[in-house]
Model the fold of this input.
Amino acid sequence: MKKICGVIVLILTLGLIWSQGVYAQSGDAKVEATNFVKASGVITSVETKEDTVTLTVETISNEPQITFFNVTDESLVFNSGSTKKIEKSAFQKGQQIDAYYDKDKPMIMIYPAQISPELVIVHDEKTFGSVKVGKFDEELRSLDNELNLKVDNKTILENTAGEKLELPDLSGKELIVFYTMATKSIPAQAIPTKVVALNYISPELKQIIINDYFIQDGIKMIPLRKVAEHLGYEVKSYSTSTQKKVTLTKGNSSIQIIRDMKVYSYNKSLQLFLAQPVLKDKKTYVSDEILDILK
Done:
């Protein structure tokens, strides 16, 4: 009976978080304001086993619940104050955290819940810092209308790999926004100290990649056409006497890739892949870093 009650509480708790944190109202329609569900709490114990750190967390809610968060090497972990990535080995009992996990992730209804978060924010006790995770439009206004970003020349813009981004790269992306002050207006205005563009992968896209990838020199190579078309890009291939080229177009975005060469063009800006695209089984494969651009 106790277990059944626990599951009921878990369902109600997740449902409450879903309704408050995932969707926002826009006129008569609901818009998806984020791909993630947020759960906040205090770490009561830390257990390390192989490559996973399991955090026992007492969640902060009207009815506090215990949740197990399994943090792996694939989880992103940031400090709210320094804005820097931290190792999962740095978790300590008593720390307050915000854990974000994919809203579409299948979950076994047991109590306590066991969740593998995509992102964990550790609250810095000495250096104040606020963090907002959500989708933003072209004007850098969050889709839930809570925050409008005013990026200046001191704001650090990067992807999850720590690579520098330009302002146009943020449009339409799910962002991690670090800031210290905001106005009391609606939406609040803030000059962020750092913005990280998240590489969100839907369950459907994850399955495409799981079913068709290989590792080359330690780099995951994924099928270019399958992935790009799934994300709404038009894919065209053509050959010259010396080169095999693939062009991806979607709206104002244009990407040109040359097989067997690391260099590629993104909106006429030349960039480099970690590994050169290759042909395998009559398909072009590229390193999975391209997901940072396609999303």
